[in-house]
TrEMBL record:
Protein name, entry field: Uncharacterized protein
Superkingdom in the source lineage: Bacteria
Signal peptide, first to last residue: 1-24
UniProt keyword terms in alphabetical order: Signal
Keyword Signal: yes
Organism, as annotated: Sedimenticola selenatireducens
Region (Disordered): 98-117
Length: 204
């Protein structure tokens, strides 16, 4: 992907999702299934959704995701931990389907030259898809899905995008950022305001 195309996608996201306040979930490509379900959903890869695969999970695979949320959470914090585990498990399942199982965090090169990579646009789009499916299946008791949010835009640092959830009780917004770590590891879930200030994991 050329820098200009990547910049255009980031600008589009920045314009559409900068407030995180839209009611409808915004996706970056018309080829992405905007009403994903476990038996019919899209996955982005190869940087800024240059490649998109249409996938389906088996009943057993989705039951495994449901099991992560049992017997249920008593607090929003407990549910966020469950969300992190569910996103990680979905990446583990989907990785071999798309050749992204060796994707490295922070856009690092994979040891497998034939493997596909994912940047923050891919990661935030896919995480939003996963969260949408969880929400539609009634797995999210304490949170609702919001639009992805982009921080920075060259003037304030390199653009970076994350999936976002909102706590139903106090309306606090939380970044769900799977880009920092290798495929199949739990995403960072932290207050969106802190994330927007440029937060990164220690040592990254």
């Amino acid at each position: 992907m050329t820098l200009s195309k990547a910049a255009s996608l980031c600008l589009l996201l920045w314009q559409l999702t900068g407030s995180g306040g839209a009611n409808a979930v915004v996706f970056v490509s018309s080829e992405i299934n905007t009403t994903p379900a476990p038996d019919n959903f899209s996955i982005c890869f190869d940087n800024s959704c240059q490649s998109i695969s249409q996938l389906a999970l088996s009943d057993d695979q989705w039951q495994g995701i449901r099991a992560i949320f049992l017997p249920g959470s008593e607090t929003a914090g407990e549910e966020r931990a469950m969300i992190g585990k569910a996103v990680a498990r979905l990446e583990q399942i989907v990785g071999p389907m798309t050749g992204t199982e060796n994707d490295k965090g922070l856009n690092k090169s994979s040891d497998n030259p034939a493997g596909h990579r994912m940047d923050c646009i891919d990661e935030s789009t896919n995480t939003t898809t996963y969260l949408y499916m969880m929400q539609q299946d009634g797995l999210l008791k304490w949170h609702r899905l919001r639009d992805p949010v982009t921080r920075g835009f060259f003037f304030f640092g390199w653009p970076h995008t994350t999936a976002v959830i909102e706590a139903r009780e106090d309306h606090s917004l939380w970044a769900v950022d799977s880009w920092f770590y290798d495929n199949g590891l739990a995403p960072e879930i932290l207050p969106l305001e802190q994330w927007q200030e440029g937060w990164r994991p220690a040592g990254s």
